[in-house]
Amino acid sequence: MQSCPLVSSPLRILGVDASLRSTGVGVVEEVGSRMIAVWHGVIKNPSARPLSACLVHLQDEIARHIEEHRPHAIAIEGVFYAKNVKTMMILSHARGVMIAQCARVALPVYEYEPRRVKMAVVGYGAAQKEQVQKMVKTLLNLPEEPPSDAADALALAITHLHNRARITAQTLEPI
């Protein structure tokens, strides 16, 4: 059983809101009782790019962000129910290459349901994307609201930091 490494502050988490065309990524660091946004952005894939090339690009970009930001763990959005099976399969492919890249470098990956992320950040599990953006801006003291996908990634990292006590007690295991 692998657990989130016990590290002295600062603890750095890479949040990933997986998508084939617009993957949100964000790095949050916990310093004492404060959370600080280190970096956030979006990994884009043009619509004309074939699936296999998109997946390689996602894997390469996640590898680059892991190397550049040196997170202690990854927080990724869990698979949620969708009416469109094709969309679910594509999302699963995107998540798979990113999780595999994390496994390649022995980085633990933790999965959070969208509802749980909204509850941790906004206090309401059915919050709208705009509410998540506003709360992420407030919680991380950002000068402006991040783009929606990046805000979701930062929210995932915040959720992971909120769950740190449960993780160190080994009640929440990485995937």
Give a structural overview.
There is one protein chain. This protein has helices at 51-69, 85-104, 114-121, 129-139, 148-162, 164-168; strands at 11-17, 22-31, 34-44, 73-77, 109-112. By secondary structure, the protein is an alpha/beta fold. A five-stranded mixed beta sheet has the order 3-2-1-4-5. A hairpin with a 2-residue loop joins strand 2 (22-31) and strand 3. Helix 1 runs parallel beside helix 2, helix 3 crosses helix 5 (148-162) and helix 4 (129-139) crosses helix 5.
Describe the biggest sheet? 5 strands, mixed
Question: What spatial form do the alpha-carbon principal axes imply?
Answer: globular
- The number of helical segments is 6
Q: Tell me the β content.
A: 15-25%
- What would the average pLDDT be, to the nearest integer? 90
End-to-end distance: 10 Å
List how many beta strands DSSP finds.
5
Radius of gyration from CA coordinates: 15 Å
List keywords for this structure.
5-stranded mixed beta sheet, disordered N terminus, alpha/beta, 5 strands, 175 residues
Brief write-up:
By secondary structure, the protein is of the alpha/beta class. The chain has helices spanning 51-69, 85-104, 114-121, 129-139, 148-162, 164-168, and strands at 11-17, 22-31, 34-44, 73-77, 109-112. It has six helices and five strands.
Secondary structure elements and their pairing?
Elements: E1 11-17, E2 22-31, E3 34-44, H1 51-69, E4 73-77, H2 85-104, E5 109-112, H3 114-121, H4 129-139, H5 148-162, H6 164-168
Parallel strand pairs: 1-4, 4-5
Antiparallel strand pairs: 1-2, 2-3
